[in-house]
Each structure stands twice: as C-alpha cells, then as structure tokens.
Amino acid sequence: MRWWVRVAVLLGALVVWQLVSVLAANPYFPPPLRILEAAARLWPSAHFTADVLPSLARVFGGWAAASVVGVAFGVALGRSRALADYFEFVFTFLRTLPPPLLVPVFMLVFGISTEMEVVTIAFGTVWPVLLNAVDGARSVDPVLADTARVFRLSRARWIFGVVLPAAGPKIFAGLRVSLSIALILMVISEVVGATSGIGYQLGTAQGASDLPGMWAWIALISLLGYLLNRGLLAVEHRALAWSRP
Amino acid sequence: MSMLEVAGLGHAYGGVDAVSDVSFVVEPGELVCIVGPSGCGKSTLLRCIAGLLPPTRGTVSLHGDRVVGVPSDLAVVFQDYSRSLLPWRTVAGNVEFPLRDRGLSTVERRSRVEEALSWVGLSEAAGKHPFELSGGMQQRVSIARALAYRPALMLMDEPFASVDAQTRADLEDLVLTVRASAGMTVLLVTHDIDESVYLADRVLVLSQSPATVVETLKVDLSSPRDQITTRGTDTFVRLRTEIARQIRR
Ligand SMILES: Nc1ncnc2c1ncn2[C@@H]1O[C@H](COP(=O)(O)OP(=O)(O)OP(=O)(O)O)[C@@H](O)[C@H]1O
Ligand SMILES: [Mg+2]
User: Fold this and answer.
1) Contact A146 B132 (CB under 8 A)
2) Residues B143 and B102 in one domain
3) Sorted alphabetically, which CDD domains does this protein's record hold (chain A) (predicted)?
C-alpha cells in the first residue's frame, strides 16, 4: 500500500478520535490535541536525558544481556543431548514464572535501582531467545552437520559458521518477541520501583491526576516500541538476506 | 599398503540390515565405482567408510589405520548435495569454507577456489548464493568444494545425478583428469552402469538390499579415456553387459 494512504488513515483516525473525545468530554480520555500539547511540553524537556535515555538504556542493557546468555545457552542445549537432559526441566519451570511477579523479590534484593530493572528485564526476556535458539540449533540440517564433520571443521567454525547462521531465523524471531517484552517490563518495573524513567514519569503523572501527561507517556512508549521493532527488523533483514530467496 | 580396506562391513538400522557383509580393498590412486540397485545400501556404505556412521559389524581401515571418527584427508560429495551447501554463503564462500581450518594462506585458498570453480565451469557464479542456482549447478559447487579440499580419498555419492548429459560427460572427464594429476583415490557410487565402466579401474556390483558385493570387475580399458571412442570399444560393451546381467540377477 502507498505510504500516503496509511498516513491518511492514521490522520483520519486521529480526527475521529479528536471529535469523539471533544464531544464526550470525558476527563479520563482527553482529546489527542491535548495529549500532543502535553507531549510537546514533556518529551523534549529535561525529561529526555533524565527519563527517556535511562529507560532506553535499561531496555537495551537487560535485553542485550538476555540475548547473549539466551543464545549461548540455547545453542549449547540445542546441540548437546546431555545438557538438554539436565537443564530442560529447570528451564521449563523457570520460564513459566511471570516476570512481573519477581519485581517485588528483585526490589528486595537490589533495592530501588537500575540493577533491579535490568535484572527484571533480562529475566523476562531471556526465555524467548533461549527457547528459539534451542530450536534453531536443533534445526541444522543433518546433511550439513555431516558435511561439517567430513571437512573436520574446528569447533568455533562449526558453532559460528554453521550452527549460528542456521539458527539465525529462529533466533531473530525470539529477539523480536523479547524486545517487546523488555519494553513492557521496563514500564512495570519503573512504575513500581524507580526514581527516573518513562515508567516512573507515568506513575508520577498518575499521582498528579495529569491525564494528558499520562497519555503522552503512553504514546511515547508505543512510539519507542514501534521504532525499536523497526530497527531490529532492519538488522534482521540484512542478516537473513540469504533466507529469502 | 592399501588406501582403503573394508572388511566384513555390515550396518543395520534398528535391527533391519541395510548393508549385510561387504569386503573390498582400494589401492592408492585407484578409481573404484560402486553400482547397485536403488535402496540397496550404497549411501549407508559410504557413510560407514567416511566414519559418519559406526558400522554394526566389520571394520574400515584407511592407510592401515582403523577408522573410528571421520579421518582427515577425506572428502565426500553427498547425494543430497543441495542440503550440504551453506545457504548463507556464496558459491566461492562455500568452496572456501572447509579450507579455512587447513592452515592455508589467504592467497592459496583463493587460488584453489578459483581453480576448482573454473574446473566445474562456475567461475561466473562465484558471487551467487546457492538458492540462485539450478540443482545441477549446486551439485557442481559441492564437487568443486571437495576438489578444492584435495583429499587423499574422495567419496562421491551419485555426484552427477542431476546435471545434463554434456555437463555430465565434462564432469566425468574432470574427475579422471584431477584424479590423475593429484594422485587422488576415488570411490564413486553411481546407478549408471555405463558411467561406472567409463570411469573406473574396477567396478563393484552390489546386490539387492541388504548389500553384499556380488561381483568385482576389473576394467581393462586404456587411459586416457575418451567419451566417444572408449564407449564404442568391445571391452566396454562386454563389461556393461556383464554388469547389467549381475544387477538383474
Ligand atoms: N537413517 C536411516 N534410518 C533407517 N533406515 C534407513 C536410514 N537410511 C537408510 N535407511 C534404509 O536403508 C536402506 C539403504 O539405504 P541407502 O540410502 O543406503 O540406499 P542407497 O543404495 O544409497 O539408495 P539410493 O540408490 O536411493 O541412493 C534403505 O532401505 C533405507 O530405507
Ligand atoms: Mg544413496
């Protein structure tokens, strides 16, 4: 579809929303122009360095750590029957824990701190990456595995030159799921246990009954989610060009 | 010492015999063809020889050493050639890949890749990815990869199955030439009787599944062979008739 059609649809929706909310005059659902006003007041101000950047850093920190750990463990488990036998049960148990439940625990352990948020995000995002990496590593074609054995590839070349690329499509699918989880956990952990960040500002705006402000922060979160996903898709598109004949 | 010695080899998949009792010897520099009916256990036999599959019975020895893991200095052209290529690497990248752990300089690797690709007529396609190639071209990439590796023993599992007649003749002659110049030993599986006689110093005829060697035929055709004249000689015709009769049996 042409881009201007999409933009037109978006603008149309905003106009309808504006009209409906003005007519309804419900204070909990302010019109989009009021939200835009609030956004213009809040986003570019001191909040950008004090709140937006720290939030992004937590998302990236937790997500990156989880990705490295998840891929490393996932590939090891995917290629080793013995390891899988030992750990699969533990992991199946751990991953069923909803990460927000652990926020109170991590708050006690780490206090109200960046560590707490990063650990919460990392714990919640590691599972999709790990499980997809296991799947991907197992999906290496047996003929390709035989080929690697015949040519006596070194262990490093086997892992980095064969297993990781073969698992690439699955791993990226996991990374995308976990990125959206990272954003959600960032907000949750900041609302309850932070002194800065987008989630913290959302909580503050709520405390002050500043509804346009709240909606402005919510809009920022969804905008960030959209942009992060777009960025990751662009990376994926380049990295997996070979898998789209 | 013999290059390869297979003694009393048998393999069963979950109790069902695929290879029953195979023994033969291949001398250094020899080209031996294995022919046998479809599904008789040829690929299983090659996988046992390559050390990819532990045989249920019997032994395989290379240079007199018992094969347990995959031996060095061995290359395989797999029957499932397209699944043996790395889809994320270019044609040149695929050929070069196994050379990286062989302690070769960049220059040496590049020259081997160029040479092997020109042998199989794929110099133009060096920068393409496998999915951009036809089946026959992919098969030639896997042949080029094995040739660039310069193994002492080359195992080929129906390596020319999906190329056209002219390319097939060219590749047959290529294997004969490279074998002679590099002193390579070749064990080649084919279902094409004419091809086995044309290429081989000796032909092993396998029985129906589970495979045993029913006949070993020495091919006393002069070298170098020629696609037109060799195939017209009386010896050639006699040998192919003999093999056809053995397989029919
Ligand atoms: N991994 C496996 N598990 C169980 N049975 C197998 C396996 N691989 C092969 N077989 C069986 O072993 C027998 C021999 O198979 P193999 O692939 O070695 O034959 P082949 O002579 O190479 O056949 P083709 O001419 O079709 O290539 C067949 O009956 C096949 O079904
Ligand atoms: Mg076969």
Assistant:
1) no
2) yes
3) TM_PBP2
